[in-house]
Specification:
It is a single chain. By secondary structure, the chain is an alpha+beta fold. Helices cover 39% and strands 18% of the residues. It has 17 helices and 14 strands. Helix 16 crosses helix 17.
């Protein structure tokens, strides 16, 4: 007997947008009691990046959802008492320690690959493991130096060895110290309850697809698979057993799946007004951002300066559940400088002023200055809003 799948739930584009906002923590009251750790567990990952303008991206993620949580508190929430580890997910990400078993498929895959790019002399790998065992957590510099004297990718033997051990899962990154990874043995840093929770590849993938679907609320195959960089064919193999349900979304050209819990109640509540890191999981995938918000955004930090349109680290403005502008911020002493501001309408000036003011206070600035705007009326409206608040 052939099993006929249930008909897909039909969603309007507006319903899909609000489901995504709630799933990502931007619609409804934030769970302040759960705090930063709650944000991490809910999202399943927080992406790391070297760029620091207002703050580093992994700080901006909880700020965008919770407001002005202390930056020291953010770091402590991630790293103290073994609550998180760093590994390769969507990119280099902070992950809740409960997810350690889910990445066993990736650790096994790395072990099965030929050694990439770098040769490693006999004994170098074992020497790093022995040093961590006897001396405790260390950075690559403490292990013997991160680089040789060549270009940035010219890693030292100890750096190659410890990064290989990280990929294999024998070593884990337990924190960043001065932006350097701090390595420790997984057997010492990861709680026994999850360290030895062996899952086969299918179960790892099934759970990661489910987690990604829950974090996104609703998404296409590409959206959900990309959340943890899972191959499309792996997504196809497990999506039916993942617990996600098929949906159709008006205006979306491809099939989609949703978290059934996200469909159970109508997404309502207060919208957060905030600036977003370009590495925020709400917007990190350009095609999804355009599809959901009708907003085209590109990180221009790696674009030659003369070709940039919106600025080095333009941060989209989320207000009323929509993306209504962007600003390229910088800090000069105790002044937050809006180097370039773009708004969809001067009517969005109050929201931008509020977001700039909150961000300035969060990073210890007491003044906001507008340097450039896309239109004269934008600058006029925004300057007036800031002046009215005495900023």
């Amino acid at each position: 007997m052939t099993t006929v799948p249930p008909p897909a739930t039909e969603l309007s584009a507006d319903e899909a947008r609000r489901i995504a906002l709630r799933a990502q923590g931007f619609l409804g009251a934030p769970d302040r009691r759960a705090g930063v750790r709650g944000v991490l567990r809910h999202l399943g990952q927080v992406q790391l990046d070297t760029i620091s303008v207002l703050a580093r991206s992994h700080e901006l993620i909880p700020y965008a959802r919770l407001g002005a949580v202390g930056r020291t508190a953010v770091e402590e929430a991630y790293w103290t008492e073994g609550h998180a580890f760093e590994y390769w997910s969507h990119a280099a990400c902070i992950l809740p320690v409960e997810e350690w078993p889910l990445f066993a498929f990736r650790r096994r895959a790395y072990r099965g690959r030929p050694h990439w790019y770098h040769d490693l002399p006999d004994g170098a790998y074992d020497a790093v493991i022995k040093q961590l065992l006897t001396e405790g957590p260390q950075t690559a510099t403490e292990l013997g130096g991160a680089k040789n004297k060549g270009e940035w990718w010219d890693w030292s033997e100890s750096k190659i060895a410890v990064e290989r051990a990280l990929m294999y899962g024998e070593v884990v990154c337990t924190e960043r110290r001065g932006w350097k990874r701090v390595y420790d043995l997984a057997e010492r840093a990861i709680p026994d309850a999850v360290l030895h929770d062996d899952l086969d590849d299918t179960e790892c993938l099934r759970r990661l697809v489910r987690q990604a679907g829950e974090a996104l609320g609703v998404g296409t195959r590409a959206d959900i698979a990309d959340y943890h960089r899972i191959k499309g064919e792996h997504f196809d193999a497990v999506v039916e057993s993942s617990g996600l349900v098929p949906v159709t979304v008006a205006g979306w050209s491809k099939p989609a799946w949703a978290d059934p819990a996200a469909l159970a109640t109508e997404p309502r509540g207060r919208h957060r007004t905030t600036l977003l890191s370009p590495f925020d999981s709400l917007i990190w995938e350009r095609a999804r951002t355009e599809r959901i918000f009708g907003f085209t955004h590109r990180l221009e930090a790696y674009v030659p300066k003369q070709k940039r349109v919106h600025g080095y680290f333009a941060m989209p403005l989320l207000a009323g559940g929509k993306l209504v502008g962007r600003v390229d911020p910088a800090r000069e002493g105790r002044t937050l400088v809006a180097r370039q501001v773009s708004l969809d309408s001067p009517k969005s000036a109050p929201a931008m002023a509020r977001a700039l003011r909150e961000a300035a206070e969060w990073v210890g600035c007491d003044t906001v200055r507008i340097e450039r705007a896309d239109r004269p009326e934008t600058a006029t409206a925004l300057t007036a809003e800031l002046a009215a608040e005495g900023t």
